[in-house]
From TrEMBL, chain A:
It is an enzyme of class 2 (transferase). It catalyses: [E1 NEDD8-activating enzyme]-S-[NEDD8 protein]-yl-L-cysteine + [E2 NEDD8-conjugating enzyme]-L-cysteine = [E1 NEDD8-activating enzyme]-L-cysteine + [E2 NEDD8-conjugating enzyme]-S-[NEDD8-protein]-yl-L-cysteine. It comes from the Eukaryota. Gene3D superfamilies: Ubiquitin Conjugating Enzyme. It comes from Botryobasidium botryosum (strain FD-172 SS1). PANTHER family: UBIQUITIN-CONJUGATING ENZYME E2 (PTHR24067). This is NEDD8-conjugating enzyme UBC12. GO terms for molecular function: ATP binding; NEDD8 conjugating enzyme activity. The active site is at C105. Pathway: Protein modification; protein neddylation. PROSITE patterns: UBC_1, UBC_2.
TrEMBL record, chain B:
GO terms for molecular function: ATP binding; NEDD8 activating enzyme activity. One of its GO terms (cellular component) is nucleus. This is NEDD8-activating enzyme E1 catalytic subunit. The keyword Nucleotide-binding applies. GO terms for biological process: protein neddylation. Belongs to the ubiquitin-activating E1 family. UBA3 subfamily. Its EC number is 6.2.1.64. It is an enzyme of class 6 (ligase). SUPFAM superfamilies: Activating enzymes of the ubiquitin-like proteins (SSF69572). It comes from Botryobasidium botryosum (strain FD-172 SS1). It holds the Pfam family ThiF. The keyword Transport does not apply. Keywords: ATP-binding, Ligase, Nucleotide-binding, Ubl conjugation pathway.
Amino acid sequence: MIQIWNMKKKDSAAAKKKPKIGAAQIRVQKDLTELDLPSTMKTVFADPADLLNFSLVITPDEGMYVGGAFNFSFTIGPNYPHEPPKVKCTQKIYHPNVDLEGNVCLNILREDWKPVLNLNSVMVGLQYLFLEPNAEDPLNKEAAEDLRKNREYFISNVKSSLRGGAIRGVTYDRVQVK
Amino acid sequence: MAEVVAPNQPSGDWQGKYYHVDQVLETPGPRTSDAFAAGDQVKGFLRNQSKILVIGAGGLGCEILANLALMGFKDIHVIDMDTIDISNLNRQFLFRPKDVGKPKATVAAEFVMQRVPGVTVTPYYGKIQDKDDDYYMQFNIVVCGLDSVEARRWINATLVNLVDESNPDSLKPLIDGGTEGFKGQARVIFPGVTSCYECSLDMLNKPVAFPICTIANTPRLPEHCIEWASVLEWPRVHGSKKLDTDDPEHITWLYNIASTRAQEFKIEGVTWALTQGVVKNIIPAIASTNAIIAASCCNEAFKLATQCAPYLNNYFMFIGTEGIYSYTFEHQRRPECPVCGGETIDVQIGKEWTLEKLMEWLLEKQDIQIKKPSLSTDGKPLYYQGPPQLEEATRPNLEKLLSDLVPNEGEISVTSTSLPFTLTLRVTYT
């Protein structure tokens, strides 16, 4: 049987025993503790010892969605960062890129995810959706249509939805902050 | 030709059984290493002492088990958590129609033992995660024929963690084979010495994912309809109930939903098998590619066990999609690899040290140059610099005695913006 030990001895940097915790866990520690978020975003941990499940609140300070507070749940699986975190909006909101079930259309959450991206990139990406809703990638088709056809009308719908109003028969959650 | 004797002796061996294999074990060649002990010694090790573990008894695993047994490995263990499906029978040649539904590991072990007298194959029907370090310690070599990234990452991390500087036997060579259609790869990993599986994670093909808005609005492919059923409709209808991709009833539900959607959009090609393939991310398996890759893996196992020829250093890839192309190269370690990279420092700590004292000591250490470190032990936060809520929740720990937070010889994982890798502190109290 081959003796690799002699080879190993030569490589002095090789001798390092790693802690028995998952690579995903350490990566999440690094991602979370190094988050650099603007004052418009805040993370909330239901259980501070559970880093793999938490929520993010976005309160845009400009754009059409100013005045609302939007809640997203983050679930990080054991294959992170090979696989992206699972992100859902926990409220029913009127947004072209978020459907009524809370699914979010953001490229880096699916087809464009790469392990070099991190939780900060996802959060910044989510905030961007509120500054620049994108009618080209609709999940809520009506909202996208409204935005495409008549921006002013769309903006008034947004304002109404934030207050918990109904648009085309759908009642949205009240997400307005005082 | 060697003389053939009836193969029913108790040892399972008969004269000339290993005639061909012995040609490379009896005399050194120009490239055999000095450590090669030609003759009885090396044959004795291979046949009577070595113990080898095969992980996975599927497409690659069947080939690997057969090869190893025929090469002269006699103490083989195999782990697989799956049962035999009828769709496996086209390439997993240790299984027959009567075996459908039975555990792969058990059936494969029985078949090999019956076919190759004198070989003991010990099956374990279950997950690799069920087994502890002592179990993995008993083997000389581990060969993987897996289809899952998660399982590979687990066994890789486990074998890297197993390495104990004071015990040469703790270093277990890991041979990893993998195939996707006409493409495949075989590699040899010496945990902690060469590049590990985690080091090369960025080389993996991305799992196929479609933009969610395409799935929701403009499906064009049968896959779009299936993803619509699994990603959007399943959680909408079933709430928090998890989709079990191994449950045929769940697949049937998805198949029905996807078919309806496909009809609506006039898309053809949604089948039950495709539905299962898409949700389980199944890549077409080709028997001949499996044979090539399994053969490479087994050649390496044989060479590591006998030292009769130089081993693969360390990554062989095979691409049969456009003619044949193969390439062998030395994949480099990644210093910042979260599994085999990073640095470990042994720290002697006074019983009266608080966590805050340790933090100050870390910041003062010139050779690390660390800024704003975050610390955890055993996956639990000790002190986190952020986000604000976690900083606040962990701040009370700063005043606590370290010995109340971390056991003797416990390990602390340190991350910091200024550290591209993870620093591990192994603490002993004085």
